[in-house]
Each structure stands twice: as structure tokens, then as C-alpha cells.
Amino acid sequence: MVVILGPNHTGLGSPVSLMAKGEWVTPLGRVEIDEVLAKEVFRASNIIDVDEVAHMNEHSIEVQLPFLQYIYGSGFKLVPICMGFQDLETSREVGRALGTVLRGKNAVLIASSDLSHYVPQRVAEEKDKMVIDAVLSLDEEVLQSRVRSHGISACGYGPISAVLVASKMLGARSAELLSYRTSGDITGDYSAVVGYCSIAISR
To answer: Quick check: is 161 in a domain?
Structure first.
């Protein structure tokens, strides 16, 4: 089972919403919603709604599916959670619900987010390091504080915070930066880049 959290870019639907049934389709095939787990998550939280509208035109979760399908084929089910509210209190509530429900289960938790958006490479590297260091320290409060105080345009800081909370509840003790790049590394234009990284959290 895979739980993917992503930001709500469209503003549609409930502020924090999951899909509880159905399937998602990519060019690599179909991914079923884990209906049993989705219902457990819904019942464990007072802030998560069941709402398909928030997912209809949102890309932040679906972009992760081809990577998972490449690795696992059709051998996994999905619970997608879309977050419009990303404040610390909301993120912790979502994280606690996931930590409670996933205890004892074999699950993968993914937070989908870009880092800095359309800033010079030097600025992106400086601001993204603040986010990355907070994640490596497993500290959602520092992450949220730095995003606000330094105007960091990471779109999914709420999902990242929620995954940190859940991961710590599930016994996480460390995190490792696997890769950091910007769009400039591909386009050659470093005047206005978007930052990306991958971080693995483990027990």
C-alpha cells in the first residue's frame, strides 16, 4: 500500500481530501484506490474529507504514479491525500492519523512537492537547503517556520510536514538526501529555476 500526499494547486474541493474508492489511470496502467485503508484514514482524522473534486485537476500526486508503476507494476494500491490547508496544526493532524492507521502495516509514505519556484539558481540552492536540512532533522516545526519566514515557495510543505510526523510515529530515526537538482541542470537556464530533491526517511 502507498499513501501519497500532495498540495492542492487548484483550490478545488475540501481543504484536506482523500479519494476513498475508484482507480487512477496512467499510460502505464491502472492503480486501484485502497478502499479499506482510505476508510481507516478517514475515520482516524477529524480534518480529512472524502472528496474527489480536489483530485480532478491536480497533478501533484499523479506525477508520482509512473515511478511507482515502473518499480512495482500493478502490485500496489493507493491512498491519495490532497492538502489545501498546509499549516502546522493541520499537517500534524494528518500525520497523526496516518501514523495511527499505518502502525504495523507494510506501507510506503510519499510527500510530493517541488522546492523553490522560478528564482535564480543561487537563491534556490540557499533556500532549498533550509528545507532539506529541516527534513533531514525530521523537524516539521522548523520546516514550517523556515518556509514562512524566508518566503520559500515549496508548494508541498504541508504534505512533507505530515509525512515527517507520521514517520516519527512509525519509528523513523533518520533521513538521507538522495539527490538535489534544479530545472537549470536540464535546461541550462539558471536565471529562474525550480528545485527538486529526493529524501528517504527510514527507521
So the answer is: no
Q: Could you give the angle at the alpha carbon of 165 between the alpha carbons of 201 and 174, nearest 5°?
A: 30
Pull the grid cell for residue 110.
510519499
The residue length of the chain stands at 203
CA distances from 69 to 23, 26, 31, 64, 108 (A): 14, 9, 8, 9, 13
Q: Are 41 and 96 in contact (CB under 8 A)?
A: no
Whole-angstrom Cα Rg for the chain:
16
pLDDT tens for each residue of 166-184 = 999 999 999 999 999 999 9
Give domain status of residue 47, yes or no.
yes
Question: Has this prediction a pTM greater than 0.85?
Answer: yes
- CA 132 to chain CA mean position, Å: 14
Report the alpha-carbon distance of residue 54 to residue 62 in Å, rounded: 13
**Domain containing residue 199:** 114-154+173-203
Cβ(136)–Cβ(177) under 8 Å? Answer: yes
Q: Check: CB of residue 60 under 8 Å from CB of residue 54.
A: no
Residue 162 is assigned to a structural domain of this protein:
no
Q: Which of 30, 7, 26, 31 is nearest to 17 (CA)?
A: 7
65 and 119 in one domain?
no
